Structures are given as C-alpha cells and as structure tokens.
Amino acid sequence: MENFKDLRVWAKAHELTLNVYQQTRGFPKEEMYGLTSQMRRSAASVGANIAEGCGRRSDGEMRRFIQIVRGSANELEYHLLLAKDLRFVSATDFADLEAKVLEIQRMLASFAAAVKSTAAS
Predict the structure, then answer these.
(1) What is the distance of C-alpha 104 from the center of its chain?
(2) Confidence at residue 116, expressed as pLDDT on a 0 to 100 scale
(3) How far apart are CA 24 and CA 121, in angstroms?
(4) pTM of the model as a whole
(5) Dihedral angle sign, alpha carbons of residues 8, 18, 50, 110
(6) pLDDT tens per residue across span 94-121
(7) Most Cβ neighbours (<10 Å): which of 29, 56, 69, 82?
(8) Can you tell me the distance from the alpha carbon of 6 to that of 43, in angstroms, rounded to the nearest whole number?
(9) Whose CA is closest to 36, among 44, 100, 11?
(10) pLDDT digits 0-9 by tens, 26-55
C-alpha cells in the first residue's frame, strides 16, 4: 500500500481532526471526559486507521481497516449532531463539519472499491 500521507482521504481526515479539536476547545469543561473526548477520539481514529491500514501487508487487511474507519466516521457524524442539539456548536459550524465528514465517507467508499478491484486483479 502507498504512503498514507499521499492519500487525499487521509489529508481530509487529518484536516477534519484538527477542526474537531479546535471546535471542542469551546465545549463545557464538564464534557472534557465525555463528548469532547469522544469526538476527538472518533475524529483521530479516522486518520489513524487509514495510516495503520496502509502499513499492513495486504489489501484484505486494508479493506478491514477501511471498515473500521467508516465506523469511526459514522460515530463522529452522530457526535456532531449531538453537539449541535446540545448547542455546543452552532448550526453553521455543524453544517461545515458534517459536510466534511460526509465527503470523507464518500471518499472512503471509493477507496474501498479501489482496494477491492486491485485485489481482484
């Protein structure tokens, strides 16, 4: 597999993680070990699992890590919705972050298909 830093989906995931860290700085202190931590971990998990999958030796393992990444992205999507509903993020910030998560989810679907077709070749 290629260097994870060369993948556009990883770059987008890294950017999203930085955005989530920035956004959660303003969350209430009592959420430090709750929603703040959950959002940061699920966001960081996306980029970290792409990187780990790229470090594996087979397309099968890469596909497994892509599935893990997709789960983390879905988890983050829910946490963003919860943060919006709790009024920890504005509707505008939510829309921006949600759009980034959805873009990454689409990219992951394409990436999974590309890995699968490479393995079938």
Answers:
(1) 7
(2) 79
(3) 44
(4) 0.91
(5) negative
(6) 999 999 999 999 999 999 998 877 766 5
(7) 69
(8) 19
(9) 44
(10) 999 999 999 999 999 999 999 999 999 999
* Alpha helices (H) along the chain: 8-24, 35-54, 59-85, 91-120
What token pair was written down for 9? 């989906």
Residue 69: both structure tokens together: 């990444």
CA distance 38 to 79: 8
Between CA 29 and CA 14 the distance in angstroms is 24
AA letter at 61? E
Tokens linked to 42: 């699920």
What residue has token string 């597999």? Answer: 1
CA atoms within 13 A on the CB side of 105: 14
